[in-house]
Amino acid sequence: VRMDPGCEYPRHRHVGDEEVFVLQGGFRDATGEYRAGTFHRFPAGSIHAPVAIEGDVACVLFAIARGGIEILDRK
Predict the structure, then answer these.
(1) Rounded distance, CA 49 to CA 28, Å?
(2) What is the rounded CA–CA span in Å between residue 12 and residue 47?
(3) Tens of pLDDT along 21-72?
(4) 20-37 burial, b for 16+ CB within 10 Å, e for fewer?
(5) Cys-Cys link to 50, which of 8, 12, 27, 37 (CB 3.0-4.6 A)?
(6) CA-to-CA distance for 11 and 22, rounded, in angstroms?
(7) First and final CA of the chain: distance in angstroms?
């Protein structure tokens, strides 16, 4: 997943567990801030709306979303 600085991903629910490793840049959501080198697991049923951290580089993630996601809000 690649998000330009300041880009928002739609609010969504995880059907199954999602594992995310931040390769470059970073993102934030209601649960915290995740920067390059960070690994985080979002449990099944969790809801969030990630926003790429402002700066000079894009946020690049390696993400495995078991079962996919359900988009809750579209802008």
Answers:
(1) 8
(2) 5
(3) 999 999 999 999 999 999 999 999 999 999 999 999 999 999 999 999 999 9
(4) bebeebbbbbeeeebeee
(5) 27
(6) 19
(7) 19
Do the Cβ atoms of 10 and 49 come closer than 8 Å?
A: yes
DSSP 43: P
At 51 the three-state DSSP class reads strand
Distance between CA atoms of 33 and 67, rounded to whole angstroms?
24
**What's the Cα-to-Cα distance from 37 to each of 64, 72, 75, rounded to whole Å?**
16, 28, 29
List beta partners, residue 3.
59
CB-based contacts of 27: which residues, under 8 Å, 6+ apart? 3, 33, 34, 50, 51, 52, 53, 59, 61
pTM across the whole model: 0.89
Residue 31, SS3? Answer: coil
- Residues pairing with 64 in the sheet: 19
